[in-house]
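**Protein record**
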Amino acid sequence: MNSIFKIIELFKNFLLEIGELSYFAARFFKEAFRPPSEFKEFIRQCFNMGNRSLLLVVVTGFIIGLVFTLQSRPTLQEFGAVSWMPSMVSISIIREIGPIITALICAGRIGSGIGAELGSMRVTEQIDAMEVSGTNPFKYLVVTRILATTFMLPVLVFFGDAIAIIGSYLVENIKGNVSFLLYFNQVFNALEFGDLVPSTIKTFFFGFAIGLVGCFKGYYCKKGTAGVGLAANSAVVFTSMLLFIIDFIAVFVTDIFYHL
């Protein structure tokens, strides 16, 4: 009986958190279009997030390209379909693997950082001091960070996808002596408009989710200094779950659209 009550309580808390997050998102859209704009802070956040995450994304993308090609090549060899390797790798990485892996990396790298940063500012009463001084902390701290993650994640995904395909080419060049021109001709011939547009659009939603959840967890951080770590940890967990939900919805909608 107690377990049933615990499940009900957890479900209730989950619904309350979804409602609070929705209200937080509505407040973001309200503040984002209200002057004045914090353009300098937005540019600074874009630089920090992009510059600090680029190396990690590039290294991860390169390893994904190497491993994916090494694992797939023996299977394709059994069916005599090694020539399909560039097409398969490029479509798989650009449609799905690149965006979701990059988003998960940024959720851990950027989302946790935002949660910890805003959480520490809340605990040390810096946000309260900004409100007293007449500054709008929500616009300065939250809006700029959410916009920065929304616009920077597609850029990071682009670099991650490009490096992953280059990593795949290196394996093919070593294993099958495939030239650079031949490999990338097959890559670009395999890609279509329907592969690029949906995968690009959903990266904006991924970036928005990372910034939104990270700011939400940090902005409403409680329980003193222990809450800072909790805010960073819960931001990563909640964002990761939300990314998979968004990805499923994006794939589902794309599938419906292309089968009309």
Q: What stands out?
A: The chain has a mean pLDDT of 88. Residues 39-78 form the longest helix (40 residues). Helices lie at 2-32, 39-78, 85-123, 126-132, 137-176, 180-190, 193-219, 226-258. DSSP finds eight helices and no strands in the chain.
